[in-house]
Amino acid sequence: xxxxxxxxxxxxxxxxxxxxxxxxxxxxxxxxxxxxxxxxxxxxxxxxxxxxxxxxxxxxxxxxxxxxxxxxxxxxxxxxxxxxxxxxxxxxxxxxxxxxxxxxxxxxx
Amino acid sequence: xxxxxxxxxxxxxxxxxxxxxxxxxxxxxxxxxxxxxxxxxxxxxxxxxxxxxxxxxxxxxxxxxxxxxxxxxxxxxxxxxxxxxxxxxxxxxxxxxxxxxxxxxxxxxxxxxxx
Lengths: 109, 115
What we know:
In chain A, 0% of the residues lie in helices and 54% in strands. Chain A is mainly β. The N and C termini of chain A lie far apart (38 Å). By secondary structure, chain B is mainly beta. In chain B, the strands form 2 sheets. In chain B, strands 2, 4, 5, 6, 9, 10 and 11 form a 7-stranded mixed β-sheet that branches. A 4-stranded antiparallel β-sheet of chain B has the order 1-3-8-7, with no helix packed on it. Chain A binds chain B through residues 2, 4, 31-32, 34, 36, 41-46, 49, 87, 89, 91, 94-102, and chain B through 31, 33, 40-43, 45, 48, 50, 55, 88, 90, 94, 96-98, 101-109, 111.
């Protein structure tokens, strides 16, 4: 079983739409969770950490459900600049990081 | 951003060449990583160094040879590569252990093509 599984996408949404990505992880002892954003042929960049209480950063909201081993990312009021691949990342220990395959998002004018 | 600097950005090499990728982090971190990203696959961890000591070698072929002379510098020496080794190679760093959730910071990557 894969350490991290993500919706394969691609997601094509109109500007202004709300879109949600999901991710599940297999290691129940995992401690840290992140969403990264990766543009084409560029390096992944940290979008946000994910906390048990849920957290919000502007139009982005991340949720963690430890019981279901499930992470989500919600993007409201999508912008053209949100088009990218979103990577779910799970860390069981401080220097182990497992990546999902990524979900591709295209925001259409 | 200059937190993690990786060179070269692009590399084309023949199967008999020897080349090296270089990574330098300016974030004061003590853990450094090499990842490989192939098309349609998740990032694959290759090597991890904590405090200059290699703590993980993820069954990587010996044609990839890492070197970590200090906590700020990391190299990946390449020799007799195969065409299937063509991929994006990413260096990353983190603080381990950290005060709360450790985070990975990536260099811009080296797009490697093996002919």
